[in-house]
Each structure stands twice: as structure tokens, then as C-alpha cells.
Design brief:
heterodimer; A: 396 residues; mainly beta; 14-stranded antiparallel β-barrel; 2 helices; B: 433 residues; 7-stranded antiparallel beta sheet; 5-stranded antiparallel beta sheet
Chain lengths: 396, 433
């Protein structure tokens, strides 16, 4: 590799990082379920894993994985992965409807191998989406005038996390990883009434800044060339919300929430030279927040099961063009609009493809997801489309 | 190839980044979804009388009818108002400049005749139908600085009454018609003069002319009168050159005098009336949550003020003095109200037009002036002063004035003690789960 091409890769990686960081901080609104509990739990996905049902680790070979820092051991070069997501939802509740769309960068992740036994990963991703808005149009009689007003309660912001990890390969088939993460972000809540000529309520608002720390560990095991297994777990102490006094009323108070333990496990197996099967599961102990979120309907442990298949059916320019299909079922941790409603689940069918370049030095993946959340008994039913694009660049 | 692929990825994601600029916040409609069921509560309170008004004073004399930028002719307008226009052409030219090969200036040997012209302001004329206007010669001299309907002069020690109130006139010079909407005349009224009339008007001692109307109920607003003469230069007696002049005093006399009432707030009119008010903005308002619970009184600064209106009640003005053109009511801040009529005027706090019919018979409507911005700025300044330990101002003073886009002699009268109507929303306290 020449110095020019190395510098070119650095520039490309820097450009991707810069683009992603521009919008990666806040977790933009994806669903009305963001109103429940602490918000909608966001998955830091890349398009390949998303196309396989939402699997985040356990794929064969070295991988740049958010959940699994051990997976980066053995990468041939430093790499950068950026994902871009387009969402559109259609919701119905109590005879009313709502639609929306968003575009966001759910994941930016870099991996830096050091020899064949060590690797470091660092990345930034969203965790909790707290973007939502409730409105009600009304008419007031003021003197001899009828004045149309709009009542609004809104929340804008969310929780993101910056994660660093390190992986080490003590054995040729086993890698272990450890990491730490910082929780960050903020939220601004507004409650008020908008009169004609106003763009927003003149009162009242409060802002909080989030902070917290957590730790994670992972194990990546390749018992054979055809099978890969990975297990990851993370735990955070507490998520602290500190009032921004300059932007809040006197009655706003700090808050603190226990962060759950999260466990991810997955396995993949090549059943034929061009066929890969994947199976994974996640669990998070959100029930630790049940008492704290009692007024919002409490919280329960969430889990998810994902499965998929990847088949290399075609080739373009000498590179395989895989077809990926997957499915996922998931139990969401928070209720919509209080304990009068049942808990909500999510189900999705996924698909996608990808194309590598120059022996895997660069890759673009795309996925499409069609899913539903909630039910009539849950008070809110949503269907959504999600499109995910990922670009991975290795510096060689 | 790797470079091209990587660049392609960059382009793809850059395009996507631009698309990421527009995100929608998931929105649901329904107050039943509001956290805790808390819905904003908006209340209305009206404050008037001694709870609000600290000062109410009326002053006149900011205008001089003799300096009005218009002339009036009226005959029994609204059954009460009469006005005649007086003019004296002091400097009808005796020489003329014309071009005949070269520019020449010569004495005028004679006037063949001439005319007097004026423009009718149709927007301030009633009714807007054909009007007959008469131009007469005055027979009695008058003092332009002190002339009134009753007296040709009110100079101290030289008071002289008109032999006929409203102006003593003799020879009818001409009558003319105003046809509203006439595309040829275009609101111009012309009285023709013969050569003898011009000779008389040129005399230095001539008292001038007077314009009247005999149509009952008419009030016509005129621009300045212009004399136009058809002059023969002495060197070219067969040539006619038009000369024009408006030089000389022009005014109008009227009856009755501008009415004044101590019972109302006044603005406008020929005497330029204005009213001065001071409001006490150290108000407490009720805070009664819609969902029940005890009510309390809280300072105005602790609620969200959505609207502040000063509500006036127009009063029928005396016959003859109702505005014909659309007036604009203006509130201007006054920093030193203790100076009374000498208090300098500050920035405009509020302004709005009002229908002239609000001051006619049968009026029964409110006139609301939006003070929201002014009161919000006032409360913000109060908060700043409190924070910085400065003296907190609690009073808002302003002058009530009339402004006409089309000058008019109309009066604006309002009941004393206007009402301050406040619309405010009780604060909610956003919180986290």
C-alpha cells in the first residue's frame, strides 16, 4: 500500500466519521413508543446484521461489532463502519392515526487491530429515543374573539453512548473483550399552550443532561471454520439526569435511573459454502425500573430472538452479492400511555444484500425491514419500514 | 479501485446526511395522552377603575385649526356644523416670463380672465355625491391669524365682528360642481373669473374670496386654492400666458367650536387633543387549576401572559365632528408623565385603525388595542431589574393620540377608565418519569 493510498483511506475514514458524528448524537424520533417509560430502546445496527433479523454479533470472521469488542481481533487493518437509517412509521391508537419518518445515523464504530492478537474499538451510538409530541387543538373565547390555540407537550432528545473496548486473543479460536461506556445526551421537555402568532409555547420548559458509566465484556469463540459463537454483556450503574438550570424552571428536579444488565448472544454456521445461518438472542433487565416508572406503567425485562440466512447466489464484478433474509420477535420493555394498556411486542421480517470491494477492504450493505409493534390491547399499533445502509472501510 | 469504492460510499452517505436534516418528531393528537392528564389552563381577567388607572388626563391645543393642511366647506353637516373657506391672493403676478425664441420677462399689460382651482378630497367629504360650491368676493377685510366664524379679527384691541357671521360676502364670482369619480375633472373644481374680477382681486386692498355651499348636510374637504390667470405680456399683447399663484392666507372658519368634554378621553380634532394615562401593572391574577384545587393570587409575572388588550368604549362625538376618513389610534409611551402636556412622547406601544362609524350615533362596540408586546417587554424589564437589584418600575404611562392617513378634523372620544384585559396561562412543570 502506498503512502498516497493510505492517506486516501485515512481521509475517507475521517470523512465518514465526520459525517456520522454530525447527526449521530441525538436519537431522532422513530416511533410513538418513544413516549413510554424511558423511551424507545434503539439498536445500534449495521445493515448486514439488520438484514439477518437484527443480529449484532457472532458472524464468521473478524467483525466490527458494537456488542462484541472481541470480534475485532484479527482484522487485517483498521476499519470504520458507519450506518445510516431511514424510518417511516404508521400508527393507530384509540381511533386516531399518526405517521412520521426520520433519518439518522444509529452507529459509528471504528476498530483498530494491533497485531494478530489485540484490537481496540471505539464508537458512538444511540440508546434511548425520547422524541415525541402530544398536541390538542382547542378554541378559546377571548372577549369578542374566538382564538384557536394548540396545547403541546413534547420531549426532544435521548440517550446516546460512547463505547470503547479492547479485545485479546489468548487462543486461536477464542477472543475475549472488555470495554467501558459513557452515557450522554439530554432531553428538553415543553408543556404549554401556543397562541396565534407563536411558534412554540411561551412557557414552560425544562432540560436535563444525561450522564453515566457502564462496562461490558464479550467472548468470541470459533470452534470450527464453519461455526462462530459470541456472547456479550453490559451493565451500567445509573443514568443520571441533571437539570440544566439556565433552561429550566425552578420546579425541575434531577432524576436517576438504574441501568439494566444487557446480554447478547448469537451464533452462525455455514451449512454450505455459500449458505450461512444465524441465530441470536438478547435480554435486558429493564424490570429494575418498574418501581421508578410506576406512573408510566412500569417496566419489564425485554428480550429478542433473531434468525437469518445469507446465501451467496450472485456475483458482480467478481464479488459475491449475497441475499439475506431474517426475522425477529421482540418484547418491548415499556408500555404505551400507562398501565391501562397491555405490554407491547415487536415483530419484523428483514432482507438485504451487500457488496464487497477489493477482497473485503470496503463494503456497502443494505437492508430492508418491515415490522409491527404493539397491538390494540397495548393501546398503540404501529407498522414501519426501515432502510439501513452501512459502509465499512478498512485501511489497506 | 478501493479508492473509487470508498469514495462512492462517502458520496452515498454524504447524500444521506443531507437527507438527515429533516426529521419528524412522532406526534399524536389528544389531550388524554398528556402525561399526568395535565392540560394547560388559560384564564381571563379584566382590570379597570382605580385598580388599574393611576392617571387619566386630557389636553388640547397641540393643533391649530389655522395650520390645518386642508380647507373645509360645510353646510349644516350632521345638522350642526357649518364652515366657509377664506382666501386672499396676495401676490397675483404683474409680470410674466415666457419663451419666444429666447426667454423674456415682461410686465403684464392685462388679464384676459382667469380661474380659481382646488382639489376635493373625496375620502374626507360627505356625502360622496355631486356638490355645488360657490365662490364669492368678500366685502370685509379679515385677520388671517385671528379670524373666526363670528369675528373678522380678534386682535387685542381690534376686535371686529363679521357683518354676516361666517364671512361677509358680496358678488358671486362663479359656482362650480364637484362630480365624484369624474374622469375628466378628477376631483378638481374650477371657478371661472372674468377680466374685471381679476382686476378687482389684484387690488392690494381686496379682502379676498370665500367658498360656500348651500347643500344641506354637506362637508367638503378642499386642498389649497390656486389662482390661475390668463395674462397678456406687454410686448406681445396678442399672446396669452398662464400664471399661477397660491400665495396669501387661506383658512376656514367654522361653527360651533371644537367641543370639549371632561367626561371622556379625547384624541384628534382641529385642536389636536390627546389623553395621558398611567396604568398600574403591579397586578395579581387568580391561579385556579382546571383540574380543581385551591385558587391563589399570583403576580402577573409568574404566569404566562398570552394577550394583553386595552379595551376602549368609543363615544358618539358631537354632531359635525365625527371623522369621515379612517382614523388610526396610536398609543405612545411617555417616560415623564408628571410633565403633563409637556411630557415628551416615546415609542409607539400600539396602533390600530378604527372605523369612523364607531363615533357616530348608535355606536355600541368595544375597541381593543393590543398591548401584548408592550406588557411583555415591561414584565421582562421588571424581571431584569429585580435580578440586578435595581428599582422595579410598576407603572406604564402612555399618550392616546389620533392619526389620520388622510387629514381630517374628526374627534375620537372614548369612555374614561378603559379596561385592561389579560389572557394568561398557568404554568405547568415538565418533569421526567
Amino acid at each position: 500500500m502506498t503512502r498516497a493510498s493510505f492517506l486516501s483511506r485515512q481521509a475517507v475514514a475521517g470523512a465518514l466519521l465526520g459525517l456520522g458524528l454530525c447527526v449521530a448524537g441525538p436519537v431522532w424520533g422513530q416511533s410513538l413508543f418513544s413516549t413510554g417509560g424511558l423511551g424507545l430502546v434503539a439498536d445500534p445496527q449495521d445493515a448486514r446484521g439488520s438484514a439477518l433479523g437484527g443480529i449484532g454479533l457472532g458472524l464468521p470472521g473478524p467483525e466490527i461489532s458494537w456488542s462484541n469488542p472481541a470480534g475485532a481481533v484479527g482484522l487485517p487493518a483498521a476499519g470504520l463502519r458507519v450506518s445510516f437509517q431511514l424510518d417511516g412509521y404508521d400508527a393507530t391508537f384509540a381511533g386516531r392515526g399518526s405517521t412520521g419518518s426520520t433519518a439518522r445515523f444509529p452507529l459509528i464504530l471504528g476498530a483498530f487491530p494491533f497485531g494478530s492478537r489485540w484490537a481496540v474499538t471505539a464508537g458512538f451510538a444511540g440508546m434511548l429515543d425520547q422524541n415525541w409530541r402530544f398536541e390538542q387543538l382547542d378554541t378559546l373565547v377571548v372577549g369578542t374573539d374566538s382564538v384557536q390555540v394548540l396545547d403541546r407537550v413534547s420531549s426532544e432528545g435521548g440517550v446516546s453512548r460512547f463505547r470503547v473496548g479492547a479485545g485479546y486473543r489468548p487462543l486461536s479460536t477464542l477472543s475475549i473483550g472488555l470495554g467501558a461506556e459513557l452515557f450522554t445526551g439530554g432531553v428538553r421537555r415543553i408543556s404549554g399552550r401556543i397562541f396565534p402568532g407563536q411558534a412554540a409555547p411561551a412557557c414552560c420548559s425544562a432540560s436535563w443532561a444525561y450522564s453515566g458509566v457502564g462496562a461490558l465484556g464479550s467472548v468470541d469463540w470459533t470452534p470450527s471454520e464453519a461455526v462462530s459463537v459470541a456472547l456479550a454483556a453490559s451493565a451500567g450503574g445509573s443514568l443520571d439526569a441533571e437539570v440544566d438550570t439556565a433552561r429550566s424552571g425552578d420546579d425541575a428536579v434531577d432524576a436517576s435511573y438504574d441501568l439494566p444488565v444487557m446480554v447478547n448472544a448469537a451464533a452462525s454456521g455455514r451449512i454450505a459454502p455459500n449458505v450461512l445461518l444465524t441465530l441470536g438472542g438478547d435480554w435486558a433487565g429493564w424490570s429494575s425500573l418498574n418501581d421508578a416508572l410506576e406512573e408510566q406503567g412500569g417496566a419489564r425485562d425485554s428480550w429478542s430472538v433473531q434468525g437469518g440466512v445469507e446465501v451467496e447466489l450472485f456475483q458482480i464484478l467478481g464479488q459475491p452479492l449475497p441475499v439475506r433474509l431474517g426475522a425477529r420477535t421482540e418484547r418491548l420493555p415499556f408500555r404505551w400511555a400507562g398501565d391501562a394498556n397491555e405490554w407491547a411486542d415487536e415483530r419484523a421480517l428483514t432482507g438485504g444484500t451487500g457488496l464487497g470491494f477489493s477482497g473485503g477492504a470496503a463494503r456497502v450493505d443494505l437492508s430492508v425491514e418491515r415490522g409491527t409493534r404493539g397491538s390494540e390491547s397495548a393501546g398503540l399499533e404501529e407498522s414501519y419500514w426501515r432502510f439501513l445502509f452501512s459502509a465499512t472501510v478498512l485501511g489497506r | 479501485m478501493i479508492r473509487g469504492a470508498a469514495r462512492g460510499a462517502v458520496v452515498l452517505l454524504a447524500t444521506a446526511a443531507l437527507a438527515a436534516c429533516d426529521n419528524e418528531i412522532p406526534t399524536a393528537n389528544g389531550s388524554d395522552l398528556f402525561p399526568g392528564g395535565e392540560v394547560p389552563t388559560t384564564l381571563l381577567v379584566e382590570v379597570t377603575g382605580t385598580d388599574l388607572i393611576l392617571r387619566e388626563e386630557v389636553y388640547e391645543g397641540f393643533g391649530d385649526p389655522r395650520r390645518a393642511p386642508f380647507l373645509i366647506v360645510a353646510n349644516d353637516f350632521d345638522g350642526a356644523f357649518d364652515a366657509h373657506t377664506l382666501a386672499r391672493f396676495a401676490d397675483i403676478p404683474d409680470s410674466v416670463t415666457y419663451t419666444s425664441g429666447t426667454s423674456r420677462r415682461e410686465e403684464i399689460s392685462a388679464y384676459q380672465g382667469g380661474r380659481v382651482l382646488t382639489q376635493v378630497d373625496s375620502l374626507a367629504t360627505f356625502p360622496r355625491s355631486t356638490a355645488t360650491l360657490y365662490l364669492w368676493e368678500l366685502t370685509q377685510p379679515w385677520d388671517s391669524a385671528t379670524v373666526t366664524w363670528e369675528n373678522a379679527s380678534e386682535q387685542p384691541g381690534q376686535e371686529t365682528a363679521w357683518t354676516t357671521p361666517g364671512g361677509s360676502f358680496g358678488t358671486l364670482l362663479d359656482q362650480a360642481f364637484w362630480f365624484p369619480g369624474d374622469t375628466a375633472q378628477k376631483d378638481t373644481v374650477t371657478w371661472e373669473l372674468d377680466s374685471l374680477a381679476v382686476i378687482r382681486l389684484r387690488s392690494p386692498d381686496h379682502p379676498g374670496v370665500i367658498v360656500t355651499s348651500d347643500q344641506p348636510g354637506v362637508r367638503v374637504k378642499l386642498s389649497a386654492l390656486t389662482f390661475e390667470g390668463d395674462a397678456h405680456p406687454s410686448g406681445r399683447p396678442d399672446t396669452v400666458v398662464a400664471v399661477r399663484t397660491s400665495e396669501g392666507p387661506q383658512t376656514f372658519v367654522y361653527t360651533p367650536d371644537t367641543p370639549q368634554s371632561a367626561a371622556v378621553l379625547r384624541a384628534g380634532g382641529l385642536t389636536g387633543d390627546r389623553s395621558l394615562l398611567t396604568l398600574d401593572l403591579e397586578q395579581e391574577v387568580e391561579a385556579c387549576p382546571a383540574g380543581g384545587g385551591p385558587c391563589s393570587l399570583v403576580p402577573l409575572s409568574e404566569v404566562t401572559l398570552n394577550r394583553a388588550q386595552l379595551v376602549f368604549e368609543p363615544v358618539q362625538v358631537p354632531d359635525g365632528y365625527r371623522p369621515l376618513a379612517t382614523p388610526r389610534v396610536v398609543l405612545r409611551s411617555v417616560a415623564e408623565p408628571e410633565l403633563g402636556r409637556f411630557a415628551p412622547l416615546g415609542a409607539v406601544l400600539a396602533t390600530d385603525t378604527i372605523s369612523p362609524s364607531a363615533f357616530a350615533a348608535g355606536t355600541d362596540r368595544e375597541f381593543e388595542m393590543d398591548l401584548t408586546t408592550a406588557v411583555l417587554q415591561f414584565l421582562a424589564e421588571q424581571a431584569r431589574a429585580e435580578r440586578e437589584g435595581e428599582e422595579v418600575e410598576t407603572e406604564l404611562s402612555f399618550a392616546l393620540l389620533a392619526d389620520f392617513e388622510v387629514p381630517d378634523l374628526g374627534l375620537l372620544w372614548f369612555q374614561r377608565s378603559p379596561t385592561l384585559r389579560l389572557v394568561y396561562t398557568l404554568p405547568l412543570n415538565p418533569s421526567l418519569p
